[in-house]
Structures
1.
Amino acid sequence: MPKVIVAPSVLAADMGNLNQECKRMMDAGADWLHMDVMDGHFVPNLVLGAPPLSSVHKAVPGIFMDCHMMVTEPGRWIKDIAEAGGSSYTFHLEAAYDPLDIVRKVKAANMRAAVAINPGTPTSEISNELGESVDMILVMTVWPGYGGQKFMKECMPKVAELRARFPNLDIEVDGGVGPKTIDRCADAGANVLVAGTAIFAAEDPKEVISFLRQRCEEAQERIKAEREQILFDPSSAIDDEEGEDLAALEGRRSRAMTPLSHPRAYIRNLALRRDSTASTDGKMIKSGYGVPSPSVSRRGSDALGAVGDNGVLFNGAVGMTPMHTD
Ligand SMILES: O=C(CO)[C@H](O)[C@H](O)COP(=O)(O)O
């Protein structure tokens, strides 16, 4: 799993002292600073732009500015943000006419390229080509525009699905992330954690940053260990949260397992499917809940739907899993 990165969101900073606020976060152990840029059109708020970012870049040595562009014309600001010292440029998929072209331009400007999706945008909108061309995907866990909103846990299946498709990609979550919600994010597979209010308003930001990092690293270790155990002994894939095993779940599609209802078991079983598929060397691709489809060739499965990283079939086996709403 990729390295855990904690990025305080400056939306919750004292904007009149932005340079000082960013230094304060770096001293508290932040890896990146998440710079929210809003144009008043894509979101109903107006915040930041290249000049203040340039000032921060000059005043805070070694800062990594993770620029989240909540703007209607994402291609328009690439040069300005690069010249201001931006390290990463995240544009919204909803605002992009040609996302791959934006990615090319961002990389040509020597920044990391990332794409963001709003709570209402499904992961199916992110093509394999786009996912493989970016350095990071940002899954918004609130509707963008304002800090201090309630974390939307219903966005976690999207994180889990993207983690399964792109095992080594940075996956960022932003909105309502903090000590109370970190476990959901970490269990779903997020590794870049943006938190505004939870860090800036804390009495001890250092403590919050290290808590978020620690919980996420622990989840990564747990997922890795569980995955190794499954590879060693596939029959151990018992859902310890509900006491149900894979075989039982297969016969009960109407109460499907989802990342939200059974987060740890869901990720374990995605890994199991991925690895057992990979081990057949492309001769057999599994679909649904571990049901082999020997007649589906790699070419044939491409026609049915996308084959994700390591051969996971995304013709709906994961993406269209009925949601468990209770
Ligand atoms: O992009 C954002 C809002 O559009 C912010 O980064 C986000 O809301 C962080 O703030 P908080 O942690 O207080 O929710």
2.
Amino acid sequence: MNAAVCDFAGRSLAWRGLPTPSVVRVYDESRPLELESGQTLAPVDVAYHTYGRLNPEGSNAVLVCHAMTGDAYVARPDGADCPPGWWQDLFGPGAPLDSRKYFIICSNILGSCYGTTGPSSLHPITGRPFGPDFPAVGIRDMVRVQKALLDHLGVRQLALAIGGSLGGMQVLEWALLFPERVRAIATIATAVRHSDWAIGLNEAARLAITSDPEWLGGRYREQPKRGLALARMMAMLSYRHYDSYNQNFDRSADAGEKAFDDPFEGKRRFAVESYLRYQGQKLVNRFDANCYLTISRAMDAHDITRGRGCLRTTLARIKVPALSVGISSDLLYPDADQRNLADLLPRGRYARINSIHGHDAFLIEFDQMQNILGEFLKELEHAA
Ligand SMILES: CC(=O)SCCNC(=O)CCNC(=O)[C@H](O)C(C)(C)COP(=O)(O)OP(=O)(O)OC[C@H]1O[C@@H](n2cnc3c(N)ncnc32)[C@H](O)[C@@H]1OP(=O)(O)O
Ligand SMILES: N[C@@H](CCO)C(=O)O
């Protein structure tokens, strides 16, 4: 069954020059999604894109899980005239994500605004966006929705589930919730449990949004642009590093050179001020504020040990080959945590991306990502 992509998703994807993804209804009123919170949600639609072909055994699938503000376009759809996907450089013949070999699936997460049901979707009864009435969702709920999509697509088992940041949180939950459905996992710059540092940053971002007079308790018609922009500006500081900022900006440059719709008043004196305001405005144009609140809360509640015992016991349950990649300059999900994760996983191995770009390096350092993932996939193939 194909459902329409909600208005916000349609506008935002079109603004970025992206086509409308496929959408499937995986839960409906007769069979609602039972959320971890105890609430139910229906209908639930999933926006997704696939690359390559599923083999007759249904076993050559790779699930790519996206980060906080990502979407289903991990790469440009074949033959489409649109901007590259967010992991475009990992795609192609001979690259780690080779669609001649694998059936690659990427879906927009529950609670987001790129076609999957979330706060900007229309409430089935009121016909208006859910807004603040959208229920709290967790990473496990996101994964259950992805599993329903895989069932719909006929995927029996994943050759690999992979993701960075929030994507990595989903991957860990995949290995724990549906161990029989995953043959290997790869996580990059992620967390087994959201740290107090990360929760603190998210809380400051949420308060920036909800303190904006244009937020209107979440029932805005136009985005609370200053609040959302400010949230992104703060997040962008945590996604990069002291060195990347200091190397990137020329203090003598005319900071106002780039023309854009600045959500804030006042003169911009330094290039970095202009850059951050621009990044804020870019997010206002493409991401819904209520979705930001919903997803950041889901990340804060993330804890793979919840209901499962201590961390060592929980990770010991993941028996499949597992790659854990750290980023040398990651301030948000530190490199040491990724090494620790690999040490605690029975078949874990660790690799490092050396970069000055901080947490976002998993969206930037494609040569290193290619090498690390290529090697892991080769090992998996030899072991098969
Ligand atoms: C807009 C999109 O399509 S994002 C795609 C969907 N999003 C995702 O998948 C989430 C993951 N992606 C991301 O978080 C980001 O896109 C990243 C990390 C991959 C890269 O971020 P980017 O913003 O593209 O890169 P970067 O930090 O180098 O900033 C470059 C932008 O800042 C602008 N910029 C640079 N310096 C300045 C300045 N002093 N003043 C104003 N603008 C500036 C550049 O002109 C460029 O603008 P553009 O995006 O319109 O081309
Ligand atoms: N830059 C990423 C978040 C970092 O994981 C995003 O906007 O999705």
3.
Amino acid sequence: MAALDPGEDHLRFADWAKDHGVTIDGIAPAQFVGRGMGIVAAKDLKEGDLLVHVKNTSLVTPASPSVRKHKFSTNTTIHGRLAAHLALEYDSKDSEHALWRAVWPSQEGFRTILPYYWPKKMQTLLPRAAQDLLSTQQTKLDKDWRDLSSSIPSISKSLFTYTWLIVSTRTFYWDYPDLPNSHPRLPRKRNVLKPDDCYAMCPFMDYFNHTDIGCDPDAKLCLAQPLSLTKLQVKNKDGYSVTADRDYKAGEEVYVSYGPHTNDFLLVEYGFILESNKCDAIPLDLVILPLLKPSQVDVLKEDGFHGNYTLTTTTPYACHRTQAVLRLLTLPERRYAAFVAASDDGAVDQHRVNAYLLDLLKQLSRQIMDTLEDVSALSTPDPDNRRRSKRISTTPSTLIPTSSPSKEQNDILLRRWKQIRDIVNTVVTALETSS
Ligand SMILES: C[S@@+](CC[C@H](N)C(=O)[O-])C[C@H]1O[C@@H](n2cnc3c(N)ncnc32)[C@H](O)[C@@H]1O
């Protein structure tokens, strides 16, 4: 897709970045339809070319003097402290990062793309995995606001929410393993770093859009709750760099991978989904957990195999945990035990397990078609035609709805449900063919 002129603000910010510890070579900011800003190859690039380097001292972390000066309680999260810092600086023309801030998406832009701001009826129609992520996001944001609001009395909840979401969508995961403890502009290195300790905002780097390239879709690993941070591939003790992963022609968009994220995660955290995503998966917990007897739940908990069951479109389709639970549901317990203990690869039982899975997926496929009807009805202009779904679980009470659905919101929701339908139907067809 063609790269469009970025506009004055972006050129000014790029010049500022070059004077403030950011080395940029062969790339430039540009606009892309449907993705906001991104990075374009400004000349032909070779695999391995260093494209951008940001010095550690140009990062914004809780140890940056401009953040430290607020003396926020260290008992508050780093996400919250960064959001509070950005909110306090928001109206200041003298802030050192005023030019950077001018190129971020607007609050209005976020209202369209981020499910956090969507009307309640749209939130209730999100896939369950996305609803759960949204509820977690809301809980974290509310807690940060509760913990920090008394130290930022001039800041409204609405501004704090915006800057908190700026931090979510533009922050890098930074575990600074090699850094000396002594440097005053760097966070103290702790023995054990928690994900929350590892936030860093990174000027110019946050122009890169995401693709799934570089993901390792290992079907044996079910997706754990991923970090809500943009993860860049290359970092060293001097700062962050991005190196070309392949050759690029001038004019092509250059992406990075934010991590092995499903489309439900990308939708809630970043407000978009990929058309094709090697890392996509859908959870099967809602389908499988109700089938378990209490004694089976005990066995699975004891073995560490309770919940977190996922389906992908690559063989063996159902992840290792799902393969295990399906064995417990369909076979004598000793066959399940042998599989879990890895004393048997389970191949002789695969046919029976697949047949059971096929039945479950056919039922799921019918439910998805019903949901798709509900989502399509939302975009139907006549309000009498709109049906509220009784099949979808209720929205967690903490979600904050706004206004009525926009066309963009309808479109992305519909596209996501069609993707889920296609994942399930692809596996149904594959299992039918192999049986
Ligand atoms: C780190 S910022 C990237 C720069 C951003 N596009 C901008 O306009 O400033 C992350 C945001 O970019 C957008 N984005 C990133 N990758 C995308 C993609 N592949 N397709 C659509 N939007 C994308 C999402 O809005 C996301 O919240």
4.
Amino acid sequence: MSVHALPRIAIYGAGSVGGYLAARLHEHARITCIGRRRVIDAWRIHGGLDWSDLRGGHEHVATRDVELQVDPFAAAKAHLVLVTVKSAATETVAQELAGIIAPGVPVVSFQNGLHNAAILRDALPGHPVLAGMVPFNVLQRIPGDFHQGSGGELMVEAHDSLAAFFPVFEASGLPLMARPDMPAVLAAKLLLNLNNAINALANVPLKDELSQRDWRRCLALAQREALAVFAAAQVQPAKLTPLRPQWLPRVLEMPDSWFRRLASRLLAIDPVARSSMWEDLERGRPTEVDAINGEVVRIAARHGVTAPVNARLVALIHEAEQARRTWSAQALLAELHGVQVPTAA
Ligand SMILES: NC(=O)C1=CN([C@@H]2O[C@H](COP(=O)(O)OP(=O)(O)OC[C@H]3O[C@@H](n4cnc5c(N)ncnc54)[C@H](OP(=O)(O)O)[C@@H]3O)[C@@H](O)[C@H]2O)C=CC1
Ligand SMILES: CC(C)(CO)C(=O)C(=O)O
């Protein structure tokens, strides 16, 4: 196919996910990736983008093969826009895209958190704005070099406007699964993302963290609390792993050898992979904790229940944004047990 016949995709938010998607999709679409000047300059100095994954796939994509831009107007010619900024930046991005992108162009939020698509939708009437989900981890090891450290398929809200783009993702080796139940998918992803804060506080790779029972017990406390909050709010998370979401805390608490046997897929993570929240702390950036653990606390408050474990994780991450401290699993577990209201005997 001539390059001029390829669809144009704008990726708004040049970071870990944005850079990885740009590098993976570039052969089957004309990609424009829009981001901060410091990032775009660093990617140009790197000579383009490199991607690799845990199955050994890798490629160097030269700067002539992806358009790297700092000007939001570069999104004007896109046939599809993918939003890949952190949740706190969504409102600003929505305002920046309004009036720039062509009428009717679909916009997909490839972000964690429950409300990013709704924020974009409010500012972009006349566009199908669709929730998406990135299941795998991407680490930007050095500027311009992206490593996918775990598996899973990209998901998106089913919509006719995306018909021309499914083959692009498929041909690029990143199939996109259309889902009729994205609110349930995002709720299930939020449960998994409760580990982002624990991984950031642990300051160790995800695989090491999840291999140790006391870290998993911390996650089980946060997930069990979130599941109770979801039940109070009548939110049913989708089944994204071989285990039903309701079983996750019990399996996480199992001894290491049982956990390895029962949840081998949860441990199929590259040894270098860390959560995106760890990457934020490492780079001195504000984190997304208010859109993740903070979301559990807000839903709890709306439904007359409490979420002290997730509230404590929010506070600890905000403290870490100011000054980092490395926790041991035992110290964090004691801290999280300490905030729980004892249940009547
Ligand atoms: N990284 C991962 O492994 C995964 C991440 N996710 C989710 O994907 C989303 C993106 O995460 P990630 O890629 O890690 O984020 P990054 O912080 O790596 O990338 C986002 C980039 O967008 C930039 N940005 C913010 N606002 C604007 C703007 N108005 N115009 C241009 N650029 C802007 C940011 O700059 P600045 O820092 O200056 O704000 C940053 O460079 C998040 O919701 C995250 O939770 C989901 C699954 C996995
Ligand atoms: C893939 C996962 C769950 C963990 O890396 C993530 O979403 C993140 O880091 O933000």
